[in-house]
Amino acid sequence: MWGDAWATVSGASADGAEWAAVGDVWIGLPETGAVAVVDVVAGDQGLLDVTRTLGPTGYGGRLALVDGALWVGSPAVRQNVGRVQGENRTIDGWAAGDRLGDALMDCGDLTGDGLSEVLVGVPGWSGAPRLAGASALAGAVLLVRSDTGDGDLWDAGPVWWGPEGGSALGRAVACDADLDGDGVHDVVVGAPFGGLDDRGLVYLVSGAALAGTAPTDATFGAGASGSIADVASRSYTGSIPFGWAGSAFAAVDLTGSGEPELIVGAPGGAGAVLIYDPQRGDTLPIATVVGVGHLGRTLGAGDVDGDGRVDVVVGSPDLDVGRSHDVGRVDVLAFAADLPRSSSIDERSVGNIVGSEPFQRVGAWIGLADVDGDAALDVLLPTRMPAPE
């Protein structure tokens, strides 16, 4: 039955609870300042931590595998300036509070040079001192060129910043699906505190505008630095006041149409999952799932129940159970070809895991990977370790 843990990995108290994981299995321990490589043995009741790479406190907050190499985002280092390291290069934020590396994703080869570009979120970016007149905390996203060496974010590739102050552009990013049907992966960036009443804004940058552009080209196609509103081919506004749409993303074919839908986390208030159909050109969601406990802070997508259809795995880490605060919950949502316009989490969920203790925050981070080699997706859920009995 979905929801049974077949293995766990435990850290020391100094490791903290803000873990990230990717692949099979790299685990970031930013409170310790380490990345651990874990050996997984199917059926074992534990995971074997085989080695660690140490860094400063905050190192390892975000992880991504790019062309087989590990990239590490550390948004909390150096007074939240942030740093991204990967493939013998280091990219630093510009100012305290930038939080460079708060989101990190392998985009594949967007430019046609045979190497992958990397999308990096900088949600605390305010533009100063490089860009006069930029709004405070507008946030930004950096598209790292494949030919980049060491330097700050301005040396690494185009920087697209938020159109308004406080919008936190770059809190979530995605670039692993063709959403507009032109045959090239597109870039999706969230500004969860943007728009009227903090509904949230989601921007789509067409990958076709980048395809075939040499990474050394100063203009980098549509990727010249500028406001995301000027670069994006379309944008979506969250449908729920104070909903914070754009806090998390997934892009998969939920309906069997052969074209992916864009799934957006909107965790403000009780929280919701918003589903958009980019092929329709409609900027309103075609379906909404309303939840509890800030549903939609985290998202993942894949066939986790073995029925041959794509599921959405969604976290509600702030869920309270009785007097126990922030217990957390993770649900697997199943969909059919006819998406209902609106439904509740209990109507759509086919299985869930609920935390057992206060402040465990199950669902604060979700990873999907086949870590035990059985050709089925496993769900990775870093949580705060329960107190000993």
What does this structure look like?
The chain is mainly beta and 389 residues long. Helices cover 4% and strands 34% of the residues. The strands form seven sheets. Strands 5-6-7-8-12 form a five-stranded mixed sheet. It has a five-stranded mixed sheet with strand order 9-10-11-13-17. Strands 19-20-21-22-26 form a five-stranded mixed sheet.
Overview features:
single chain; 389 residues; mainly beta; five-stranded mixed β-sheet; 29 strands; globular; disordered N terminus
Brief summary of the model shown:
The protein is mainly β. The protein has four helices and 29 strands.
In this structure, how is the largest beta sheet organized? 5 strands, mixed
Distance from N terminus to C terminus (CA atoms, Å) equals: 26 Å
Mean pLDDT equals 82
Number of helices: 4
- How helical, in percent, are the residues? under 10%
Tally of DSSP β-strands: 29
Give the low-confidence spans: 1-19, 42-48, 213-223
Shape: globular
Which structural class is indicated by helix and strand composition? mainly beta
The strands making up the biggest β-sheet line up spatially as: 5-6-7-8-12
Classify the beta-strand content into a percent band.
Answer: 25-35%
Radius of gyration: 20 Å
SSE blueprint:
Layout: E1 20-22, E2 26-29, E3 34-39, E4 48-54, E5 62-66, E6 69-74, H1 77-80, E7 83-86, E8 89-92, E9 103-108, E10 117-122, E11 140-144, E12 151-152, H2 153-156, E13 159-161, E14 172-177, E15 186-191, E16 201-205, E17 226-227, H3 228-231, E18 234-237, E19 248-252, E20 261-266, E21 272-276, E22 287-290, E23 298-302, E24 311-315, E25 329-333, E26 342-344, H4 345-348, E27 349-354, E28 367-369, E29 378-380
Parallel strand pairs: 8-12, 13-17, 22-26
Antiparallel strand pairs: 1-2, 2-3, 3-4, 5-6, 6-7, 7-8, 9-10, 10-11, 11-13, 14-15, 15-16, 16-18, 19-20, 20-21, 21-22, 23-24, 24-25, 25-27, 28-29
